[in-house]
Amino acid sequence: MMNTDAPLMADAIQETHTIPETEGSPKRRTPPVFFNPFTPGFEESPYEHYRMLRDTDPVQEHPMGFWFVSRHAEVSKVVRDARMSVKSHNLTPGPIRDQINELIADTPLKRVSMVVTDPPDHTRLRSLVGRVFTPRAIAAMEPMITGLVDASLDRIADAGSVDLAEAFAYPLPFTVITTMLGMPDADPKRLLELTEALVIALEPPGIDAAFDIKTKIAVEEAEAELSGMMQEIIAWKRKHPADDLLTALTQAEQHGDLLTDEELVAQVMLLYLAGHHTTVNLIGNGVIALLRNPDQLALLRSNPDLIGNAVEEFLRYESPLQETSRITLAPYPLGDREIPPGALVVTCIGSANRDERVFGPDADKLRIDREQARQHVSFSLGAHHCLGSALGRLEARVAIGRLVARFPRLALAGPVRWNGRINVRGAKEIPVSV
Length: 434
Hints:
By secondary structure, the chain is an alpha+beta fold. It has 19 helices and 15 strands.
């Protein structure tokens, strides 16, 4: 998928390589380091590329029209700053704004989801959803999650060798969300197909192959079908309330205020779109990291109580979401640069989480007992801190902890295949034997 746009980015970057000829000196070329996901080896591991960006140009004006921020200090500042926006209408008119506005144009997901609203709308939506999505409610789900995990492990034991992505990492978060919401007679296979089509909307604008006409039409059709499906389910749930999260969302109230049907559709779609895929990647990426670092796998087996900190280290070491974006509303000093108003600022979570300035000289190594592991920014910070972070952590703790305890001979049985995405980074295939 990624290689389709390689010539476009290469051409844009090449224009910056030539230094004008000066009197008495020949024309020279110098290769500035720009963010380029088409760099050889990037799909397998982008982290050396990120290190070069941190060391040479941590607040970078990219030739394709956005700013790219790669150090932990600047990434943390941007994502927690309440003066920044997430609403695309604040972008300066141009290709980036056009693409964002056209992708899933004028839909509930785009207009009233928490991830694309600023205060006071964001504050209201988060408050209403947060009244249901509480730490206590999440903790109460552990027995259900444990039962689902153990059932999957039984099937894996019977098979002997499986694709762990397909057999374990992928279905678990989907089943958890579906069960938690109390979805009536939902077609799980179709829901998965639709969310897979829509996850492209989480990729960064301007540099991904997603924006060809065929893909744009597929995204729009998937959004329309999923939105219609959710509207029918919400209408049914209003008539048949039960002890589940979706019923609680339909009844969530603050000072007489309720979520509208459009807002309900958007938040439920967001749970499936962002919550499912990021947790899939957290589980898959964490298992791969352990299997590629047998000393850390042995440490976890010898000290199972490390699983909580291990999940934080998995989030840091191979973040399931590599980037998030903000938009400047005024001139914005950052590092030694000043970013103009109306600019798209892409903050690189994956790079910030490997910053040696915070995590030490061994930041590129997996250490499940790392003291600073929780300083990662994988769930963002500030007002847009991930509301589902507690659920993702719980699923990963139960899934990975019970997997490695159940199968002492767990091992990779072939090469890992990555999904080719720039932002939602995870493995498409994880062949293992048990």
